[in-house]
Amino acid sequence: MATIHDVAQQAGVSVTTVSRVLNNRGYISEATRKKVFETMDALNYQPNEIARSLLRKQSNIIGLIIPNVSHPFFSELASQVEYYAYENGCKVLLCNSQLDPAKERDYIEMLKRNRVDGIIMGSHTLEVEEYVSLRSPIVTIDRRIGEKIPFISSDNYRGGVLATELLIRKGCRKLAHICGNLELDLLANSRSEGFRDTADKHGIEHMTIQTDMNVFDQEQYARIIQELLDQHPDVDGIFATSDIIAAFAVKGCVKIGRRVPDEMRIIGYDDVSAAAWLTPAITTVQQPIAEIGRLAVELIRRQLDGEPYEVDNTLPVELIERATT
């Protein structure tokens, strides 16, 4: 296996020059840079990334912990984080916690051992203290865990208001909101507050139905929808806290012959790609997923470079009306 000394000898330069080329430090002529890279290719030289990271005190690796990689929102978020990390010269270590505290803790320990530059937390199973004690820069998605730790969230309350106002404008007179378990300390709970406040403001009868603590367990969605339609046949508008739940609501209505949107109007949240692919296409509150991914990487970089940053990064949402309303 070729070493940095072999590269320097064959390229006719010093080991220091090769090191500068690898770490992009100091002035190196383009001709010398080209010669070093050509020699590395010829010798199939692979730099020791661990040694380089110890030297630079940066690994150019960002850890991303999400609760469920198969969930469309988190898979699209992971794609955006990877894209912007790569644009900034970083790689991503993807960790799928599956809402398992032990697994999430193992992943955090792995990320610490690999000296990642920062951690983007999209899963929040552990206690706040376990995040705060980490020395790496942290960015959280949809949860606030400290006064100095930056978080990113869509304007959840505004999203709940927009969805509920549209259902009311469309003539709905009994509304149901299906959401995750509100005992979880998530900023997404504000969607439910926006729904409730808007329905109360307009004097519209309404109810909120929560999932169990395993909020990503899709098997329960069909049961929840079926029970809602059986027990409250006069419900004519549903605001779901995700596009996935909204899709189950459409499916449940089709199963019993309730026409969407003539007899039931349905709104989701996120605007994942599948929301537009389904028939009927789902009306939804759009989170700026690409901007969330870009900003998460940017906030890690700002912390690494000692630059100022905002702790509260609440991004605007937009109502995308499609066929379900």
Automatic annotation (TrEMBL):
Residues 2-56 form the HTH lacI-type domain. InterPro entries: HTH_LacI (IPR000843), LacI/GalR-like_sensor (IPR046335), Lambda_DNA-bd_dom_sf (IPR010982), Peripla_BP_I (IPR028082). It comes from Paenibacillus sambharensis. This is LacI family transcriptional regulator. PANTHER family: LACI-RELATED TRANSCRIPTIONAL REPRESSOR, RIBOSE OPERON REPRESSOR. Pfam families: LacI, Peripla_BP_3. Keywords: DNA-binding, Repressor, Transcription, Transcription regulation. GO terms for molecular function: DNA-binding transcription factor activity; transcription cis-regulatory region binding. The lineage of its organism: Bacteria, Bacillati, Bacillota, Bacilli, Bacillales. PROSITE patterns: HTH_LACI_1, HTH_LACI_2.
